[in-house]
Design goal:
Layout: H1 2-17, E1 29-31, E2 38-40, E3 43-46, E4 51-54, E5 58-62, E6 64-66, E7 70-76, E8 84-85, E9 93-97, E10 106-113, E11 116-119, E12 123-128, E13 133-136, E14 141-144, E15 148-152, E16 154-156, E17 161-167, E18 175-176, E19 184-188, E20 197-203, E21 208-210, E22 214-219, E23 224-227, E24 232-233, E25 239-243, E26 245-247, E27 252-258, E28 266-267, E29 277-281, E30 290-297, E31 300-303, E32 307-310, E33 314-320, E34 323-324, E35 327-328, H2 332-344, E36 350-356, H3 360-373, E37 379-385, E38 400-401, E39 407-408, H4 410-418, E40 423-429, H5 447-451, H6 454-461, E41 488-492, E42 502-504, E43 510-512, H7 513-521, E44 545-547, H8 548-570, E45 580-582, E46 588-591
Parallel strand pairs: 4-12, 14-22, 24-32, 33-36, 33-37, 37-40, 40-41
Antiparallel strand pairs: 1-2, 3-6, 5-9, 7-8, 7-10, 10-11, 10-12, 13-16, 15-19, 17-18, 17-20, 20-21, 20-22, 23-26, 25-29, 27-28, 27-30, 30-31, 30-32, 34-35, 38-39, 41-45, 42-43, 44-46
Helix pairs in contact: 2-7, 7-8
Length: 592
């Protein structure tokens, strides 16, 4: 088989060699194998020319060619680097309205004859009556110290003038370079201009256009810091990332830290200490620490400015009141356990204080202890699961009932939590808990008013007042809510006039519907609080973080689900609670 194939190829080559000369290919002619029809390559007899026209007028480009069967005009916006077919322009001439956007564009025509073609010269459209347009940006340059290099810019337009500028602070400020007023700039490399940016301002009588900045890298000199590391804020357990941008050759990096405001510095040893970007997992002990980087090469070294690391601590006080003297309130200790497990598994590490069956004194002392060590950027979660008073002392509806039968009024809770210097998130799984952000006052007249909590709750919590919830406009006649401070964010299990609900699994395990919704929304099992692989149900945007708003939305759906389930199984509608909120729920406080 191999010999037959070689014989066939040899015979075919001989046949081709014996063909008449006119049937062989030539540079100027193309022959079809079936018909023998000959297409001569077209010849351009008159090239298109540059066109200058006023803005708004029509520019016409023409090409003259012999033997042409088709035309395709093309344009380039980047001074000839790339070309695109000009839609609809398939004749010997092409017209376009002159605008600021096509000022300086290049045009050319591909003239075809069968499968053969020839391309015309490229020509430019110059539009008068508009400011110049940058066509070719200056590019970054590298040069040895003492040697020269040239930056260039190309622009379209009429009556152009040029002014080159320099920036020694990474583009924050720019200065004109004296007598550098042409389309090119020649620069000699030195230690002083290593890392400098250069740009050109092109202007005419209509206006000016700035080119992009192009960096100069000089070899044979010590490095130059181009961008300093920025201050960072990362909660305990998260990573803080510092970055330096330096210019030079043969550079090496060494990150350092200082715990005494910069008096002494210690070399970092964590992974990445010798790279331009350095990441470190935070601890509370790092709060206030300064970081800097030493960049060096064979010619010398340079130090960055220092960048401060701020490390917020997340605190959590979790209260579960279950074993009251007059009876057990099932599920509250499970709720507390579930919240502790869920918070303990987050990337941002919480300092958690669990208070099972706590007295009023236990709770207030725990708040005071965390408040004492708190800072303005810290966050405290206060969670309570237990009885909420219906009408304590005649006016404090929603007061928290402690195991010793004392009550923490909402104004007392606000006073205690206000001592915490940072942000406070309050979660109350108790009856009438919405009273903390909505004074009971006069009852609303209709169901629509009862459901209208968005504006009224926000107004109440910030200390605004209104007369009637059913009215669109609010007037200052009655102050609402006890926690009227902007530092608070509040989620409550029920409205001020509602009870919160607990249910039991078939196993007999009780759970608060509101709390179980939070835990499940965070992708955790109830009551262990352990994270389940597969993501957080409340994380609707899939970024592995859940905002309080996402938690709120999930809990609302969760409560509604169990309400339907309870009605279907018992025929009774006993889960009528409506989750309430106040505050800016966009803040991300949960992260896996």
């Amino acid at each position: 088989m191999k010999k037959r194939a070689l014989a066939f190829i040899f015979a075919l080559c001989m046949c081709l060699a014996l063909l008449p000369f006119g049937m062989q290919s030539a540079d100027a002619d193309v022959h079809t194998a079936l018909t023998g029809t000959v297409y001569s390559a077209p010849t351009i007899t008159k090239q298109p020319t540059n066109v200058t026209v006023a803005v708004g007028k029509t520019a016409t480009f023409r090409v003259t060619a012999s033997g042409a069967s088709a035309y395709q005009w093309q344009y380039s916006k980047d001074n000839g680097k790339t070309w695109k077919n000009w839609s609809g322009m398939t004749s010997a001439s092409a017209k376009v309205e002159a605008t600021a956007k096509n000022n300086g564009n290049l045009y050319r025509c591909i003239v075809k004859s069968g499968s053969s073609s020839v391309t015309s010269k490229k020509v430019r459209l110059t539009v008068s009556g508009v400011k110049p347009r940058i066509l070719t940006q200056p590019s970054a340059q590298k040069v040895a110290a003492g040697k020269s290099v040239t930056f260039k810019v190309a622009a379209g337009g009429t009556g152009k003038s040029y002014q080159w500028q320099i920036s020694n602070d990474n583009g924050e400020t720019w200065k004109n370079i004296k007598d550098k007023t042409s389309a090119s700039l020649k620069v000699k490399g030195s230690e002083k201009n290593n890392g400098s940016l250069y740009r050109c301002v092109v202007k005419n009588s209509v206006g000016s256009t700035k080119s992009k900045g192009a960096r100069l890298t000089v070899s044979g000199v010590k490095p130059a810091i181009v961008a300093q590391p920025a201050a960072k804020k990362a909660a305990v357990g998260l990573k803080a990332k510092f970055t330096v941008e330096a210019c030079g050759t043969g550079m090496k990096y060494q990150w350092q830290y200082s715990d005494d405001a910069g008096k002494t510095w210690v070399k970092c040893t964590e992974t990445g200490y010798n790279k331009a970007t350095f990441s470190i997992k935070t601890t509370r002990a790092m709060d206030g620490r300064l970081y800097r980087c030493v960049v060096k090469n064979a010619q010398g070294s340079v130090k960055t400015s220092s960048a401060k690391l701020t490390v917020p601590q997340y605190f959590a006080i979790l209260v579960g009141e279950e074993n009251y003297s007059d009876g057990t309130l099932s599920g509250c200790l499970n709720d507390m356990k579930a919240m502790a497990g869920m918070l303990g598994g987050l990337r941002s590490k919480y300092k958690i204080k669990k208070l099972p069956d706590a007295t009023k004194s236990d709770i207030t002392k725990a708040i005071a202890a965390y408040a004492k060590s708190s800072k303005s950027y810290d966050v405290l979660y206060f969670y309570y699961s237990g009885h909420g008073a219906n009408n304590y002392m005649g006016s404090y509806q929603g007061a928290l009932c402690t195991i010793d039968k004392n009550y923490i009024r909402t104004d007392e809770l606000a006073t205690a939590l206000s001592a915490f210097k940072g942000k406070v998130v309050v979660m109350l799984d108790s009856c009438f808990s919405g009273a903390s952000i909505h004074k009971n006052g006069d009852a609303a007249n209709d169901e629509e008013a009862l459901d209208q909590f968005n504006q009224s709750v926000v107004d109440a919590f910030t200390g605004y007042t209104f007369t009637d919830e059913s009215e669109a406009e609010f007037s200052a006649t009655q102050k609402l809510g006890e926690l009227a401070q902007s530092k608070f964010t509040v989620l409550t299990a029920a409205r001020y006039d509602q009870t919160s609900s607990s249910l039991s699994f078939t196993s007999g395990l009780s759970f608060g519907v509101f709390t179980a919704g939070i835990v499940e929304g965070m992708g955790c099992e109830y009551p262990s609080g352990s994270y389940v692989e597969g993501g957080m149900s409340a994380d609707t945007d899939g970024n592995s973080k859940a905002t309080l708003e996402e938690i709120y939305n999930y809990v609302c759906d969760f409560v509604a689900y169990w309400r339907r389930q309870y009605i279907n199984q018992t025929g009774q509608d006993n889960i009528t609670q409506t989750t309430q909120y106040y505050g800016k729920l966009s803040t991300v406080l949960f992260a896996r």
